[in-house]
Amino acid sequence: MKAAKLAFGLICLAILASNIWTMSRWSEARGVYDDICYLRQAHLFQRFGAGGLDTNAIRDDDRYFEGKLKEIGFAEWRDPIRWPCHNPMRSGKVVLQYPPGTGFLLALFSEGHQVVPLYIAASLIVCGLALSGIFLARTLPSLVGAGLFGALAVYLMINPAKASYSVAPTMALCAVAGFLTALWLARDKRSILLIALTGLLLGASVNFRLPNALLAAGYFLFLGIPFLWTRSLATFVQGLAFGAGVLVGMAPTLVAQAINAGSALATTYGSADVVAPAFDLAVFGQYLRDMQFVLIVLAIGATAWLLRAGEGHVRQAAFVVVGNLVVNLGFFMSHPIFTPYYVVPIAMLSLWTLSFARLLQPAEAREAALVRTDAAGLGAQPR
Predict the structure, then answer these.
(1) What is the pLDDT of residue 271?
(2) CA dihedral angle for residue 274, residue 203, residue 90, residue 166, rounded to 10 degrees
(3) Fewest CB within 10 A of the end CB: N or C in the chain?
């Protein structure tokens, strides 16, 4: 086991090293609109501190964004109404459409060298949790599962995470939130602090991508349905702690929307970006041909297996994931827009949760589950 753990650990570290080498050669001027828009938010934070939440186009008085637009050959750089990733508000402001989290993280690094350190930091977090999973494995099957998943998780920090600067920090938060979820469920007396911290992280993920708000759906269902059934004070307190954590975590986005759109509940996205749900076979077919489909199959398959063979907190983790998958996949599969990373966050949050739930399973429960699985397999044999 020690040799196998070392081997899988070295594989994860080798992928990490390869990723860092690749990232170190990335350019921050690759001609993608989203990139320069996130960098503009970072520039505002570096100039104005917390005042950088106000993304009004008139604050580009130092011509930073205009310069970025010229670099990529954008013809209408003089007209803020035509700026990419910006939308006019009823107040007359022209503001960035994205939540402020990605720009805030980029602002932590020196201008001109922001993207690579962000990706390396996120990759280190993911790799650290992958190595933790390998270390926690107590059986060869669980070690193989943790090792293969860890290697996949580290690799994904290059592809598809490179598609948007918002994906890298989202992936890191999903990994940590998955671990905390499993740890919360594994304890006989569930910690209010752990579930509040999980809510805080999932709420914070909304600051990177607004659809990340859906990542909390399964938790609300897991805590809300039992409360409606039993009216348990303990369940109510757990749900309240989680909800408070989510609200506090997403507070920067709510404040930014209040400043830029006039209300905390108003969106800074334009009407062209707010698309009504509609099932589209063409969009669904794109998911089938994409790496995301592999992650969806893995998440659904792991959930189904743990619902059948899992016990105690492992099965409960699977129930949390079921609610999350139903809500998130239902939303994105009925959303007539496709990108190569839309369902990656929910797939990775699900897989991290299930992986750690299995790894943190007590030895007695794990042996009982194996016995039950073997018995079921023997019962299916022809006589």
Answers:
(1) 63
(2) -60
(3) C
Closest by CA position to 308, among listed 324, 184, 221, 300: 300
Choose between 272 and 170: higher pLDDT. Answer: 170
Running DSSP on this structure, what letter comes out for residue 49?
A: G
86, β-bridge pairs:
96
Which percentage of the chain shows pLDDT scores above 90? 73
- Fill in the amino acid letter for 217: A
In the structure encoding, which two tokens stand for residue 302, read together?
A: 């792991």
Tell me the backbone φ, ψ of residue 94, rounded to 5 degrees. -115, 115
Strand partners, 117: none
3-class DSSP state of 1: coil
Nearest to 255 by CA among 268, 245, 271, 244: 268
Q: Note whether 186 and 48 are within 8 A (CB).
A: no
Residue 380 reports pLDDT greater than 50: no
What backbone phi and psi angles, to 5 degrees, belong to 368? -65, -40
Instruction: Decide: 320 and 353 in contact? Cβ < 8 Å.
Output: yes
As beta bridge partners, residue 96 has 86
Average pLDDT, the chain: 90
Alpha helices of the chain — where are they, by DSSP H? 2-23, 33-48, 64-71, 101-106, 115-136, 140-155, 167-186, 192-205, 217-230, 233-249, 251-261, 281-288, 291-309, 313-333, 344-359, 363-379
Whole-number Å distance between alpha carbons of 264 and 94 = 17
With cut-offs at 50, 70 and 90, classify the pLDDT of residue 379.
very low
283 and 177 Cβ atoms separated by less than 8 Å: no
The pLDDT of residue 208: 97
Cβ neighbours of 254 (radius 10 Å): 17
Per-residue pLDDT, 295: 94
In residues, how long is the chain? Answer: 383
CA 2 – CA 246 distance, rounded (Å): 39
Distance in Å from the first CA to the final CA of the chain: 36
Q: How far apart are CA 298 and CA 151, in angstroms?
A: 14
Whole-number Cα distances in Å, 28 to 16, 141, 144, 170, 195: 21, 42, 37, 19, 37
Residue range 118-166, pLDDT digits in tens: 999 999 999 999 999 999 999 999 999 999 999 999 999 998 999 899 9
- Which of 126, 107, 133 shows the shortest CA–CA distance to 46? 107
